[in-house]
Amino acid sequence: MIRHIVMWNVRGASGAEKAANVERLRRSFHSLRGRVPGLLCLEVGVDSSGADYACDVVLYSEFASQAALDAYASHPEHLRVKQELEGLRTARHQVDYRSGKQQERAA
Questions:
Q1: pLDDT exceeds 70 at position 10
Q2: The domain defined by 2-99 carries CATH number 3.30.70.100
Q3: β pairing state of 89-98 and 39-46
Q4: Which of 7, 51, 93, 96 has its CA 20 to 30 A from that of 62?
Q5: This prediction's pTM
Q6: Which helix (DSSP H) or strand (DSSP E) does residue 39 occupy?
Q7: What tens digit of pLDDT does each residue of 38-83 get?
């Protein structure tokens, strides 16, 4: 299993505008559930720490395999979400890794 984690900071001139953009991002990614083969789990979290170095939103997802994650990148539903959210972010960070049990066996 592959874990795919993406964190964003989103645009917003006011707290209300930023909150609306976060909700837009959350809804868009939740719409992928059940539509992308090999996407086993998808969770969107919104930062509650308020730390100045924290990202606004995190996407946690699990894929059946590296091939499933690779296919997700060009899947029409994922491309639709990317288009819906174009220009919304100010920063993006990503980490992909094999799940812990697989990492332990490989080590």
A1: yes
A2: yes
A3: unpaired
A4: 51
A5: 0.88
A6: strand 39-46
A7: 999 999 999 999 999 999 999 999 999 999 999 999 999 999 999 9
Contact in structure between 90 and 18 (CB atoms under 8 Å): no
Which of 92, 81, 86 is CA-nearest to residue 9?
A: 92
Helix (H, G, I), strand (E, B) or coil at 38: coil
Helix/strand/coil percent split, the chain, to 5: 40, 30, 30
Cα separation, 107 vs 90, in Å, equals: 36
Helix, coil or strand: residue 22: helix
Locate the domains of the chain by residue range.
2-99
Region of 91 on the Ramachandran plot (φ > 0 left; ψ -120 to 50 alpha; else beta): beta
